[in-house]
Write a structure and sequence with these properties.
Strand order of the largest sheet: 1-2
Strand content: under 5%
Shape: extended
Distance between the termini: 36 Å
Protein name: Transposase
Order of helices and strands: HHHEHEHHH
Number of domains: 1
InterPro entries: Transposase-related (IPR052344), Transposase_IS66_central (IPR004291), Transposase_TnpC_homeodom (IPR024463), Znf_dom_IS66 (IPR024474)
Largest sheet: 2 strands, antiparallel
Structural class: mainly alpha
Length: 234
């Protein structure tokens, strides 16, 4: 059973990796198509309605990397999950067990008054979807100095604690927020406009332009080097 569970876990990781690579390939295929479109004129692709933004065109249209990101703009993300109840999901872990027992004072036989013992369990399973959490993480770095040097008037060394570097310098973007936006757009096919409306209903304002900037910057800074490395290897 342990060996079977290990194989299931390995297969699940492989499936997740394949999905990531497929998304990356799809992204750069569409980038290539857009490049050809800009080079040779209007696209004759069927099924595109006049005035309708393509899945990838929206990012390039909305992005403005020169514009300063609003400081007070809050980050939020939502996720529409497709429920896939499979045997692999159940056997692969992530199962939380909730025990329902009788208190001691109720473990009395209604016939003879003797103590009841536990003879087994009735079990049922349900799939629980936990909505994504939206929160702001404030990174507070300690700055230290020497009191002795301060008193003596000598050179006072300043030492700062290590702190994770931001995903995008000067931005509120976090890895989880950008990953969610990219997944929603390129896997769930939810345009940035739709994502903005979803978070707006939750009281959070996140503009299409900001989301587009995040996608473009992270694609160039993080995904493109991975793609180039993969292309060199394979």
């Amino acid at each position: 059973m342990e060996t079977a569970n290990n194989w299931i876990e390995i297969i699940a990781k492989k499936d997740a990796r394949i999905a990531e690579l497929e998304m990356l390939v799809k992204f750069y295929e569409e980038q290539f198509r857009l490049s050809k479109h800009r080079q040779f004129g209007p696209s004759s692709e069927k099924g595109t309605l006049p005035g309708q933004l393509g899945l990838f065109d929206e990012v390039e249209k909305e992005a403005d990397l020169q514009k300063t990101e609003p400081e007070l703009e809050k980050i939020a993300y939502t996720r529409r999950k497709r429920i896939v109840a499979t045997l692999r999901l159940v056997r692969g872990g992530g199962v939380e067990t909730v025990e329902h027992t009788l208190p001691e004072e109720e473990r009395v036989c209604p016939e003879c008054g003797g103590m009841l013992h536990e003879m087994g369990h009735d079990t049922r399973r349900e799939l629980v979807i936990i909505p994504p959490q939206v929160k702001v993480v404030e990174h507070k770095r300690a700055v230290l100095s020497c009191r002795n040097c301060e008193k003596n008037g000598d050179h006072v060394p300043i030492v700062k604690a290590e702190m994770p570097k931001p995903l995008i310098s000067g931005s509120l973007a976090s890895p989880s927020a950008v990953a969610h936006i990219i997944t929603q757009k390129y896997v769930q096919h939810i345009p940035l406009l739709g994502q903005g409306r979803v978070v707006k209903r939750q009281g959070v304002r996140l503009s299409r332009q900001t989301m587009a900037n995040w996608v473009i910057r992270c694609s160039e800074d993080w995904l493109l080097p991975i793609y180039e490395r993969m292309k060199a290897i394979f």
